[in-house]
Amino acid sequence: MRAVEHFIGGNAASGGTRQHEIWDPNSGEVQAKVSLGTGEELQKAVDAANNAQPAWAATNPQKRARVMFAFKALVEAHMDELAELLSSEHGKVIADAQGDVQRGLDVIEFACGIPHALKGEYTQGAGPGIDVYSMRQPLGIVAGITPFNFPAMIPMWMFGVAIACGNAFILKPSERDPSVPVRLAELMKEAGLPDGILQVVHGDKQMVDAILDHDDIKAVSFVGSTDIAHYVYQRGTENGKRVQAMGGAKNHGIVMPDADLDQVVNDLAGAAFGSAGERCMALPVVVPVGNDTADRLREKLLPAIDALRVGVSTDVDAHYGPVVTAEHKQRVENWIQTGVDEGAELVVDGRGFSLQGHEEGFFIGPSLFDHVKPGMESYKEEIFGPVLQILRAGDFEEALGLASDHQYGNGVAIFTRNGHAAREFASRVNVGMVGINVPIPVPVAYHTFGGWKNSAFGDTNQHGMEGVKFWTKIKTITQRWPDGSPDGGNAFVIPTMG
Length: 498
Ligand code: NAD
Known about the structure:
- By secondary structure, the protein is an alpha/beta fold.
- The protein has helices at residues 39-58, 61-77, 79-90, 94-112, 114-117, 153-164, 179-190, 205-213, 226-238, 261-273, 291-306, 326-341, 377-380, 396-405, 419-428, 464-470, and strands at 2-4, 6-8, 11-13, 18-24, 29-36, 122-127, 130-138, 141-145, 168-172, 198-200, 217-223, 242-246, 252-255, 285-288, 345-348, 367-370, 387-390, 408-409, 411-415, 433-436, 452-453, 456-457, 472-480.
- It contains 16 helices and 23 strands.
- It binds nicotinamide-adenine-dinucleotide (NAD).
- Nicotinamide-adenine-dinucleotide (NAD) binds next to helix 8.
């Protein structure tokens, strides 16, 4: 059986007495095993990082960027291999797996411009004979802990920017689909990255705790579910680290009466059911404004859901594949039952779906609920499966309030032809990322990604200039080159640059 090892000091490394099974979600069989490491493997990675990081930080930014350029070309050359590997462990269809890799590469492209992003600021003549300038310096050794649902994109969000800024990066990927992160680290080495600057250690809570408690690790970026994000944020910051921790989501799509419903239904089908709903920027809640809009939307949604093709992840005609594990499938189906028990109307039931020839795969058919109410647990919590919930709102204010008051605030979308309504919505909604007639408003790499409320802890976002800020510390220099003549100032009074 294939074994997935750590990647420490530029080489595959075994270590850890426990192992985790990696499933093939299409067949329901175990396809590989990954070693779960401990503080011992982490220490080896930290030692290698400590050896390599000072020289990397001293390498000029243009040379660091050249490694990113070479890495981008290598990932492009290996796109098919990476997408197939990713799809085989995660279950998302191949085209979607390519998108996962590409959205990460977008951040690598941003990192190629790091010399420009790190230039700093300069003020000549901030006072008499005084200049002020600032520089951004790397933090040293930093770490990223990533979820199963974007095993290529999210690691690249983090290490692309962190490494370009001059840090050594230790990645702890999800133990459910850890192979692509290791391949990415191998390709970074091939691109010319010195050993010890990008390392991968596998593990579960034990490894996460070791990272959070290690004195040499200065910053931690986490993406995963909310309870764990909160835990990571608390423990990491208590230990004096800089922490950004992104959590779960429950994104709403507001549908105004004037929206183009055919377009909305097309967008919703992809955003609610694509990747089997396992996206933090999925759109699992739709809020039609007015009963008439709700009835018309529901009528159009039914044939669109009926037309969805669930298949193995290598089926080019499939809209979505299996969910990641049998355990996750059970969890999603339990939420569907909770929705029924709470009194929502289950219009389409995706439970009990079986794909011929793949009866043991972790497939779930699409589900649709109507008449979901704000007090229901199945609405308050994240389901993370192919389940769309309709919540009917009486008017714009009620719809705005639903999205704003929900515990999660990752993304939200409004569908309308009314520019004023859209503008008002974007400015007032209490959510971090907003789409206007865009169902999955994941910002491009040179902007920044991050939610609000229980969707993110810490105050700095992923990638873009926010990422540069997170992975660096700023130093500000005030300089004077006296010409020898007495300046006549009073050294006992705080300088006012007067
Ligand atoms: P998860 O929280 O189970 O795992 C995330 C990481 O935490 C993994 O590396 C895992 O090994 C580690 N971990 C698991 N249990 C732990 C514990 N008890 N203590 C410490 N670490 C632990 O998340 P997941 O199921 O892999 O990913 C799905 C979740 O991630 C969803 O909630 C989704 O919304 C969220 N997500 C959020 C964003 C975002 O940007 N907000 C993006 C993608 C995914």
